[in-house]
Amino acid sequence: MLDDFLYWFKAGVSRELILAEHPNRGIMARVSDPPSLSLMPFEGNTNLIISNSLYSVKTTLFKGDISLNFVMD
Length: 73
What we know:
The protein has one helix spanning 2-8; strands at residues 14-17, 27-31, 36-50, 53-67, 70-72. It has one domain (2-72). Strand 3 and strand 4 form a beta hairpin. It is elongated, with a radius of gyration of 17 Å. Helix content is 10%, strand content 58%. A three-stranded antiparallel sheet has the order 1-2-5, with no helix packed on it. A two-stranded antiparallel sheet has the order 3-4. It starts with a helix and ends with a strand.
């Protein structure tokens, strides 16, 4: 999911941004700088069902802060 996030918010690509104070309107915005990441990886456990068998698998959970700067033309 972190790779998908970084791909979606790469610098210079314009996408529609919907602000919380006006949820029925959108504006085209782009990320002015690459995202600033301050993350720590933690180990997490989750259960998957594959072919009617339950498996416990380990995953990586990231916790921290991500800072974005937008430019709206």
